[in-house]
Design a protein that fits this description.
The protein is built from no helices and eleven strands. The protein is mainly β. A hairpin with a 6-residue loop joins strand 4 and strand 5.
């Protein structure tokens, strides 16, 4: 089994930065895609960013491209999300997810249904 645990987030001011981390344990996941999604109250869960664990190839939602950066730490087996220039509309519960299925070389999924494993989520609130 695979376990994902998010940390970080909390309350930040508009324009500030914060960083989320996702620790992955269980099966060795050296070839998985890991991603971040978010869900605001009353809205559908939406894609934020994802990364191929092996190649480092990334994929970003248009709404965060240029402000958020996804990265990996092999030593800690974590995937991180650096969030800069935060806006009130970034307020949401942020979820870490892992995709355990090979879907083609270079494919970095942005589709929630393609991720088999999920963390419990961490709240990020951006005040104006």
């Amino acid at each position: 089994q695979v376990r994902l645990v998010e940390s970080g987030g909390g309350l930040v001011q508009s324009g500030e930065s914060t960083r989320l981390s996702c620790a992955v344990s269980g099966r060795t996941l050296s070839t998985l895609v890991r991603g971040w999604f978010r869900q605001a109250p009353g809205k559908e869960r939406e894609f934020v960013a994802s990364m191929s664990w092996s190649s480092g190839r990334t994929n970003y939602a248009d709404s965060v491209n240029g402000r958020f950066t996804i990265s990996r730490d092999y030593a800690k087996n974590t995937v991180n999300l650096q969030m800069n220039s935060l806006k009130p509309e970034d307020t949401a519960v942020y979820y870490c997810a892992a995709d355990n299925t090979f879907r083609g070389s270079g494919y970095v999924s942005s589709t929630a249904s393609e991720y088999e494993y999920w963390g419990q989520g961490t709240q990020v609130t951006v005040s104006s």
